[in-house]
Amino acid sequence: MRFSNLGLRVLVAVFGIPFYVFVLYHGGLLFFFTNLLIVILATYEFLSLGDNRPNVTWIVTLIISAYCFWMMYNGKTYEAGCTAIIPFIVILFIHVASGKPAGALLHASRSAAAVLYIAWLFGHLFILRDARGSLQYWSTPGWQLALFPIAVTWITDTSAYVIGLTLGKTPFAPGISPKKTWEGAIGGFIGAVTVGIIAGKLGVVSVPVGLLIGVFAGIFGQLGDLGESLLKREFGQKDSSSIIPGHGGVLDRFDSLLLNVPGTVYILLLLVQRSF
User: Fold this and answer.
1) DSSP secondary structure code for residue 74 in this structure
2) In the Cβ-directed half-sphere of 196, how many Cα atoms lie within 13 Å?
3) What pTM, to 2 d.p., does this model score?
């Protein structure tokens, strides 16, 4: 049945969301290690797409991903992005040393992509949480800035899911994600814009900026979800894993945030010199 997983999804959300909000509010190393676990699990799932045999290249990628995430935690955004070249070079040398060229480019490129796509992009959450540099302009507690794109994403996903189940009839991207519909996508977009306006009304940012971020998240968050679905379909997988009951994998739940979090960061930084 189409609603068979709804109960599990709700149950996980009832316990998971308050816990994550608490960790977000607390900040510090608790916040870092909670999100590091998310990054490690998501990276593991990303590496397993089309390759279910863990090997030394996975170990290299996971170590560098953790290091990249640690650098993001310490505010070294540029340096963290540069770490993606490390697994690329190391894995090429591993293939050279083994004398087995088959899959060298695939493994090296996948590892570099994993570091950038997951650890570096998601690491932008620390920029919001610490309200670093120019973000202090908004005079908003860092935990609220960080919660903003997360809340927008949660509501977008929930709205798209519920509207898609109840009203969805028109396929949105049948070749990538057969169950997604235009009705669900529009519902998700409306949910994102609504949260953006509410955040503006609550003073997290101004209403126009909240609306702008809501529009961005309502579009690019869903595109991020489709992007991850595209990767799974390439290898014939429905979910990145089954670790979260009713939801699939960690990457399945956090794929939209990989665009929404850095998008929020750069929108706020671009607008920081103007009054909204």
Assistant:
1) T
2) 23
3) 0.91
